[in-house]
């Protein structure tokens, strides 16, 4: 069976939140910098599955 997506580990989420705080970025600003909508960024920080892009 193939995976339906990817999910960040709790440690990865904590590290990403720390990085955003250190840079004083919001999830919205991160999404804009990545050229994506805020929805996948929000799902990432909530620990939900994200679909694979390739």
Report on this model:
57% of the residues lie in helices and 0% in strands. The protein has 54 residues and is mainly α. It has a domain at 10-46. The radius of gyration is 12 Å and the shape is flat. The mean pLDDT is 90.
List key phrases describing it:
0% strand; 54 residues; single chain; mainly alpha; flat
Structural class determined from secondary elements: mainly alpha
Shape: flat
Unreliably modeled segments: none
Number of helices: 3
- What is the percent of helical residues? 55-70%
Oligomer: single chain
Report the mean per-residue pLDDT as an integer.
Answer: 90
The end-to-end distance, rounded to whole angstroms, is: 17 Å
How many β strands by DSSP? 0
Share of residues in strands: under 5%
Largest sheet: none
Give the SSE order as H and E letters: HHH
What is the CA-based Rg, rounded? 12 Å
Task: Give a topology summary.
Blueprint: H1 10-23, H2 27-34, H3 38-46
Brief sketch in words of this structure:
With 54 residues, this protein is mostly helical. The chain has 3 helices and no strands.
């Amino acid at each position: 069976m193939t995976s339906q997506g990817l999910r960040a580990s709790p440690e990865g989420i904590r590290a990403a939140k720390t990085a955003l705080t250190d840079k004083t970025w919001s999830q919205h600003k991160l999404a804009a910098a990545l050229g994506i909508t805020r929805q996948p960024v929000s799902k990432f920080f909530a620990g939900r599955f994200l679909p694979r892009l390739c």
